[in-house]
Structure formats: structure tokens, C-alpha cells
Amino acid sequence: AIAVSQSELGVSQDMRINSFYIHCRDFYITAISDMKSRFDFTDPVYEVVTMLHPENARNLKPRTLSALFERFTVLNKFCDRLKTEKEWNAHALLPTSAFGVLTESAVFRLPAEEYWQKVFANDEAT
Predict the structure, then answer these.
(1) Is 91 within a domain?
(2) Based on the domain organization, do 120 and 101 belong to the same domain?
(3) Can you give the pTM of this predicted structure?
(4) Which stretches of the chain drop beneath a pLDDT of 70?
């Protein structure tokens, strides 16, 4: 015999599923509220990070890396700025085949980590 709790009697499966979704939603609302209270999402570093998204990178958004070098001044010590700018422009010209896909839109959908691993592994971009 299957044990059924008193609270489940008369409760349809749809109602239980709906209740589950409500609990999930409430969890996400609480989690996001906690994250927003703990972290400063207005920090300009988040604007710089958007350049790493494959679609932005392929479309050269931003056109230059000057904001990156201004935000992280230590880069000026360790990176040849001119060479870095050339590589930034060159990577956008890599064929879609360098990413193992057929279309530009497929390149845009790649996870950022996979995209950049393929860029750095490609001799044409470096």
C-alpha cells in the first residue's frame, strides 16, 4: 500500500505542480534579492565584461580596448597595447569554421569560455 498524507488528499496534481513552481519562484526572488544586497552591480567592470560575449566581440563592441586598459591600468605594464588592439580586430575576422560552426549566429550562441578558447588556439588571431 502507498502511504498518502492527509495534506495530499483532495489535492490535484496540477495544484501540486503549481505549488512547486510558486516555491521555486519564491526561492529565486529571495536569492536574487540577497545577491543584489551583497554585490554592487553598478560597478563599471560589468560594462567591460560584456565585451567578452561572443556576439559583442565578433561585432567589435567596443571598437577599441581603450576602456579595458583604462579600467585595468596594470595591463599597460604587461601588454603591448598596439598588438592587443590588432589581435582584437583580427579575431573578429576569423571564419566561422575556426569555431566549428557554419553560421555567424551559431558563433554568437557559443558559451564565452568556449569562444575564447578557440580564439586563443587559433594562430590567425594571435
Answers:
(1) yes
(2) yes
(3) 0.66
(4) 1-11, 125-126
